[in-house]
Amino acid sequence: xxxxxxxxxxxxxxxxxxxxxxxxxxxxxxxxxxxxxxxxxxxxxxxxxxxxxxxxxxxxxxxxxxxxxxxxxxxxxxxxxxxxxxxxxxxxxxxxxxxxxxxxxxxxxxxxxxxxxxxxxxxxxxxxxxxxxxxxxxxxxxxxxxxxxxxxxxxxxxxxxxxxxxxxxxxxxxxxxxxxxxxxxxxxxxxxxxxxxxxxxxxxxxxxxxxxxxxxxxxxxxxxxxxxxxxxxxxxxxxxxxxxxxxxxxxx
Amino acid sequence: xxxxxxxxxxxxxxxxxxxxxxxxxxxxxxxxxxxxxxxxxxxxxxxxxxxxxxxxxxxxxxxxxxxxxxxxxxxxxxxxxxxxxxxxxxxxxxxxxxxxxxxxxxxxxxxxxxxxxxxxxxxxxxxxxxxxxxxxxxxxxxxxxxxxxxxxxxxxxxxxxxxxxxxxxxxxxxxxxxxxxxxxxxxxxxxxxxxxxxxxxxxxxxxxxxxxxxxxxxxxxxxxxxxxxxxxxxxxxxxxxxxxxxxxxxxx
Lengths: 252, 252
Fold this sequence. Notes:
By secondary structure, chain A is of the alpha/beta class. The first copy, chain A, is built from 9 helices and 8 strands.
């Protein structure tokens, strides 16, 4: 059994702890978090500590905290012999270089505690400072997911940036859609089939081929009417900028 | 059997023709299009014409053309007795008011010829100038979909605008994501599970609760690094505007 300590209690730490507990070769032997109360009660079978001096010896330490705290948590593990990794998309592996064995274990997905995720479909991007460590991360990755890839710090940064566009920004557009529905006394439910089909479409078509709508057709009349209908200045700005970007992409 | 003439050969006309042909109570008796060659070959069993004088008598005429041509196609049907509807999200029902019986049959979905769509899940928004006509549209709607709603022209305009945000604009963000992947020699495939989960998440969570990412956390360091990584000015502008909008939505 390969022993794992999880450091953190946020969304990634929570889902990773759950998923690793369900593997046959890895065991979460401890969760460290400064506020024990923030550790989800469903993880209560796993020993937990808020005291850095009580962190146990393990084969693998997974730092799953906000980017700004990786450095601090890393410093608490200075005397540890195991492999130390973080789970951040936008932080270089080098932040852990004071350790002998270090790497990155980045699951590319959006996590919320209230939603169960199927790890088997999540791409896991791994990186390590030695082949031996890379191989351990590969074994862990494959015990969770069918898609484990070696990705450099530089590529991972690009991936994280792309993820902001296709996930965080996309979700904000959903939020605007929901607001417009509300203003028109319509349920957000009516948009759901469209949202799902828009996502599913790019599983088989490149997004540039899937593009439709007034901006692509350069349908000025519709765009003008839409701008008039928008009640919030910020929504107007977003409408203008994205329409312009689409127009530019598809014009000759 | 209720007879239907479809006017148009674009994506909506194509998918509607196919779906109506599969109902037991409705039959597409003719497709009218100015360019016969644009009618998909898989619809060749349906009689077609490019001559306005040859448009046959039918119970229902569905004008499925670009918004700018609805008026013109409507004028070709002036002497017809049947119910005349258009399929546009952003055009008022009143554009057809020169006819005795008129209405709107708006399927809220993104259509591409290369993709089969399951009509049963598509919300169909109907409107008509009489209860009798509304009832006919309701019967047609229900023979295609489980979700038929009476929606006013004003509400439909709002819906179409919301659809631009959650479909057309979202798809452009996917396109940017694909470009960033390419720049980092990564396959767009790696983003697909994230894209699908981001869409599926809002089926059960309101999008405002599903929001994650650096802008929501006001993680300035990550946002600054992202802006530096973006190679295109336009992508930087989109990043800044959407991050600002998210920040504003979630700040106290």
